[in-house]
Design goal:
Blueprint lengths: L3 E4 L6 E3 L7 E4 L2 E4 H5 L9 H17 L14 E5 L5 H9 L4 E6 L13 E5 L13 E7 L10 H11 E12 L4 E2 L9 H13 L11 H8 L2 E11 L7 H29 L4 H16 L5 E11 L18 E2 L13
Parallel strand pairs: 1-7, 5-6, 5-8, 6-7, 8-9
Antiparallel strand pairs: 1-2, 3-4, 9-12, 10-12, 11-12, 11-13
Helix pairs in contact: 2-7, 4-6, 5-7, 5-8, 7-8
Pfam families: Methyltransf_23 (PF13489)
Protein name: S-adenosyl-L-methionine-dependent methyltransferase
Keywords: Methyltransferase, Transferase
């Protein structure tokens, strides 16, 4: 049976998941975790459609990252933590790749995961807005992916401090965040276009609870938390297959299906409850934004930031290596020209 357990506040022990974490509310045909939305933790759906999208998005990221799950040099990991494990795809693949490693996936919702999950992966339910109860110097790697929709706006500094504390000396943190502000590679998207209306509406609808621009600050946050050898990279993630570069065109073509579902999934709750938009108006805006995302004339993309950093210590196995895509790396706050277009 697949394990779902809740963290206890005092030690490493876990308890069975309280059924309140499984309760959902339905809005415009989508299911949301009651606990998450009522406590302003997470506003995206948790239904089967979203689980399918998250699995598809993981496979898309495997394309982007050239099937590399771990970017820093961690040759023989003993313990790995994933923050925001979602459908569990990343944690399961890491557990299969490193069968001697204990992999723990944390999420606020007990997503169903396959029954043939490897024995060395453990999924636990916890709110990452609360201080971590793991002991210090415990993990070799912490993976934090797409947490901008889950971490409270004022929590990010302490969130990074918690990650730093639970890593062993020499351990690594890797972070991936998308800045959901659609950009145009040729500058043709204006404030009046649906993709920009969707983007600004999304940023506005969650900014009192979340930091939707945190992707732009990952390098600063990691450096301020005490990490060294911090490296950041901007990857322009095409919303459809418009690129002249064959690999980016393939990624964009694959991302098209994800974007079509993402534009609706991310918008449904915050647009209706936060902005007071009707379901009809939301669906009309989403349909228009999808059409523009598909239009090769706009060359639309989301900026995606990848950042890694090491906790100081004696154990070192070389430098990290983030997959490049077509965008140059950045160190010491210097970024490629593509970042200058991220508003």
């Amino acid at each position: 049976m697949v394990r779902h357990r809740s963290r206890r506040c005092s030690d490493l022990q876990t308890v069975p998941v309280d059924n309140t974490y499984r309760e959902v509310i339905t809005l415009n045909g989508r299911d949301f975790q009651r606990h998450a939305v009522e406590n302003s933790i997470y506003f995206s759906p948790v239904d089967d459609d979203e689980i399918d999208r998250l699995q598809y998005q993981h496979e898309l990221f495997n394309m982007v990252f050239e099937n590399r799950l771990i970017f820093p040099p961690v040759p023989r990991p003993r313990r790995i933590l994933e923050c925001g494990s979602g459908c569990g795809a990343w944690a399961i693949e890491v557990a299969e790749q490193y069968p001697e490693c204990e992999v723990i996936g944390l999420d606020v919702y007990p997503y169903p995961v396959p029954e043939d999950t490897p024995d060395n992966v453990d999924f636990q339910v916890d709110d990452l807005n609360s201080p971590s109860t793991f002991p210090p110097n415990y993990f070799d790697l912490v993976n934090s992916r797409l947490m901008s929709g889950g971490i409270h706006v004022n929590r990010w500094t302490n969130y990074l401090s918690d990650i730093f504390r639970v890593l062993r000396p020499g351990g690594w943190c890797q972070m991936v965040e998308i800045y959901y502000n659609a950009q145009s590679d040729n500058g043709t998207l204006t404030a009046n276009h649906a993709l920009q209306v969707w983007s600004q509406s999304y940023l506005q609808s969650i900014q009192h609870y979340k930091d939707p621009r945190v992707a732009l600050r990952l390098q600063t946050l990691m450096t301020e938390a005490g990490f060294v050898e911090v490296e950041s990279r901007l990857i322009t993630l095409p919303l459809s297959g418009w690129s002249s570069d064959p690999r980016d065109r393939e990624i964009g073509a694959a991302n098209r299906a994800n974007v079509h579902r993402l534009l609706s999934a991310l918008a449904m709750y915050p647009f209706s409850q936060g902005l007071g938009m009707s379901n009809t108006d939301i669906q009309l805006l989403v349909a228009q934004a999808r059409s523009e995302a598909d239009n090769p004339a706009f060359k639309a993309y989301f900026p995606m930031y990848v950042c890694i950093g090491r906790k100081p210590g004696s154990s070192r196995h070389g430098h990290g290596d983030i997959p490049r895509s077509h965008t140059p790396s950045s160190k010491g706050g210097r970024h490629g020209d593509s970042r200058k277009r991220a508003r």
